[in-house]
Amino acid sequence: LQCAALLHESLRCDMRALLAPDSPDAAVRLRDTAIAQPVVFVADYALAKLWLSRGCEPTAMIGHSLGEYVAACLAGIFSLEDALKLVTARGALMAAQPVGAMLSIGQTEIEATRLAKEHGLHLAAINAPNACVLAGPLAAIEAVTAQLTKAGIAATLLETSHAFHSAMMDSMLPAFSKVVRTIKFHPPRRRIISGLSGMPLTDAEATDPNTWVR
C-alpha cells in the first residue's frame, strides 16, 4: 500500500490493479518496462519485508538487476522513496532506448562470447556453466536462434522489450547518472554482495553514485 501510494503519480495508476488476475490490460501494461520495473521492485520488496516481519534476518543479501536495488534498500543504503525514484527513472530511461531482444541459450561462456562477437551481440548474463543470455538487435538475435535451433541447441527468446544488460543501454547512463546524484546514500546496515564485484559491498562503494550508475 505504501509503495502503491508513492508510485501512483509516476505510474498514473494504482499499481495493485496491475497485479489483479482479472485486470483487463495488466498483461499489456506490464510489458512496458517503464511500468514493469517499479512493479517488480515492489513485489520483491514486499516479499522480503514479509520474511523480515516473520523474524527471518538475512546473514547476507544479493540481488540480480532490480533485485540488487531491493537488497540495497533493505540494507539501508537508500530510503524506500529514493529506491522507487531510482527504479522508476531507470525503467523509463530503459524504455526510451532502441528496441532489442534477449536470448537464453544452452552454451558455455566461451561459446556464447564467440556467438556474440560473430553476430554483433552482447553477453548479457552467465546464469550457469551451460546457460547464458545474449542481447542485442532483434534481427541478430533471430539469426542466432535459427543457427542454434538448426544445431539442436536450446535457444529461448525472453519476453523482454529491450536488450537489457547490454551496450544498447549505454546511452541512458548520463541521464541516469543525474538522477543517481540526487539520492542520499548511506553505509549498508546489512551485509550485501555486490553484483559488480561478487564481493561484499564496502561502505565506500555503497555510497559512491558511480557504483549505481555502473
Describe the structure.
With 214 residues, the chain is of the alpha+beta class. The chain has eleven helices and four strands. The chain has helices spanning 2-11, 15-18, 26-29, 33-53, 66-74, 80-95, 109-119, 138-150, 173-180, 203-206, 209-213, and strands at 101-105, 122-128, 131-136, 155-157. The chain has a four-stranded antiparallel sheet, covered by helices on one side. α1 (2-11) runs parallel beside α6 (80-95) and α6 (80-95) packs antiparallel against α9 (173-180). It is globular and about 50 Å long. The model has no long low-confidence stretch (mean pLDDT 92).
Q: Care to give the gist of this entry?
A:
The chain is α+β, with helices and mostly antiparallel strands. The chain has helices at residues 2-11, 15-18, 26-29, 33-53, 66-74, 80-95, 109-119, 138-150, 173-180, 203-206, 209-213; strands at 101-105, 122-128, 131-136, 155-157. The protein is built from 11 helices and 4 strands; from the N terminus they run ααααααβαββαβααα.
Which term fits the overall shape?
Answer: globular
Overall pLDDT score: 92
User: What is the helix tally?
Assistant: 11
Spans of 5+ residues with little confidence (pLDDT < 50)? none
- Order of H and E elements: HHHHHHEHEEHEHHH
Give the helix/strand class: alpha+beta
Q: Using DSSP, what is the number of strands?
A: 4
CA radius of gyration is: 18 Å
Helix content: 40-55%
Quaternary state reads single chain
Largest sheet: 4 strands, antiparallel
Order the strands across the largest sheet as they lie in space. Answer: 2-3-1-4
Strand content: 5-15%
Quote the distance from N terminus to C terminus.
31 Å
